[in-house]
Amino acid sequence: MVTNDTAPAPRLRGSAVSELPLYRLHILRFGYAFMAVGLIIVKWPLFFDHIENMPLFEGVVACILTAMSLLALLGLRYPIRMLPLLLLEVLWKVIWLSAVALPTALADDMDGAMEAMVFSCALVVVIIGPEILASPPDSTGQVVFTGAAWVINLVVAEYVIRRRARAAAADVPGVYVTITG
Known about the structure:
The chain is mainly α and about 180 residues long.
């Protein structure tokens, strides 16, 4: 009698890959690719050209972001296992939008660089953010990202309102608009 001494590998209960639709895995992979390509284009030239001449903090940031780009490339192969990387990417942007961009917009002190950063952060949080957790619509993750979308909307709306008020005051002589924040 021939016996099979090798038992099949035990299947993990609630395996995330088997529970996720394929389109969600592709959205996660898009998030990793978006992060990796952006960092490769922007940070790798700094890393390979003159990192030894950078100030200490800028050199540390360049090394961290280069490492993140390598981890993002790994996320293309293992989208579920690398979810903490995408979660970190969205979380720091949500924190920055609420702690830095919102008070700056309320103080009417946004410049062009800040506007570009708000757009960049909002794009990632609103488009990719809800898919990172790949959660059903009634879960906590959806609530968190809905809240983040509200923060982004508030920042943008406040900025647009203040900008229009300034433009209206500049166009009409003798009319002064005072906005206090």
